[in-house]
Amino acid sequence: MNLLDWHRVFDGCTDLDAIHGRWQDAAQAHYLNPGHATPEYQDALLSFVATSTLPAPLKLGALLACVSGYDFDLRLAVGVLDDLDDDSAYTDWPAALADTAGLLGPCPALMEHDLARDPALAHFALGPLASLREALRWNGEDHAHWRAAFWQAYAGLACRWADSAALDLALARGVRLTDLVPAALDVLAEGVHSPARDAPWYTEGRSNAGYLALIDRLRAAGLDLHRESATVLTAAARADNAQMLEQLATRGADLALAGPQALAAAASNAAHDAVAWLLEHGVTDAAALDDALLAAVSTLDETLVEMLLDAGASLGSLQEQALCAACAARPFDLYNGETEFIVQRADMLVSLALRGAPLDHPRFIASLRCAAQGPRLLAALRGHPGLEARHRQALAAAGD
Questions:
Q1: Virtual torsion, Cα 343, 241, 286, 304, nearest 10 deg
Q2: CA 323 to CA 328: how far, in whole Å?
Q3: Which of 47, 69, 210, 216 could, after both became Cys, cross-link 4 (CB 3.0–4.6 A)?
Q4: pLDDT per residue over 229-265, tens digit each?
Q5: Which domain holds residue 46?
């Protein structure tokens, strides 16, 4: 299923009525649900505006008649489609709308040239357009502003979907390299883990190679990947894309410059493959390892903590900080179905205690008292089968 071509079903339509009649079925066939402003829905509409073969007035009319301004910023479409060079695409505004809508230009000919058989439908589409134009007038924004905003948004689509043709189109419409940094690089460096992964039925056939092709296209346009090392390496590490890390490094991204930042990002997201790759490639500075260790503790991932300790991280002076981090950790974004992480926090605290972290330290006790569900966490900690007698004594000495 190619989401970006979802609108091809309208290519044979010659009037607004036909599009309006097919719109809902076409959207549902591609899992596009109005009322849920998902990235996929936004990208589908951006693609319709940019690449549909329908005449511009008809595309504009379709959006105004079929799409809610709550689901998509229609000013983007107005900026592109309501700024036409062909005078034959315009007509006079209906009398009821002429006073306000006419101030920013002529009326798209939704009812002329057989674009709409039903005058009521055309008038329904013209109402939102009049409101949009009035809003643009009062905000001091013109078509040029929203035309630029549209192509900027479309360039983002190109990066999310690794679509080189879309990127070339955006660049040809005036999007500059500086407009794409760093947001586009974040997406490209994530590779196959880019935001489109959230809709698996759209992702078949995508690979890191497609995203690297766009990075190479930007490099050919002047992108200095060494200067953007922190952006791309951190994004790839955060997404646990070790293959992308390897490819970025061969293209000039500098581990000496941004490796520690990337390691901390990988550890914060429990990105095992990325952490392993970075450690294997020399990101083992003591300060970097310490930062990554604290980040790993906050993920409540004991395997990741062990990996960093084996690589040379030292709990040493970080004992109290690590205990407090484990006590406060509730990494909802990394796990599904968890609410309070009582068991996981207790497991991590016991693991740290067995490595010498003092459970009677005043700072930790204060953190435990302030922790979410503190009494339950304390009960789980006291009842943990891995806790040694000396640790139980330390907790008892601290009181309730």
A1: 20
A2: 9
A3: 47
A4: 999 999 999 999 999 999 999 999 999 999 999 999 9
A5: 3-141
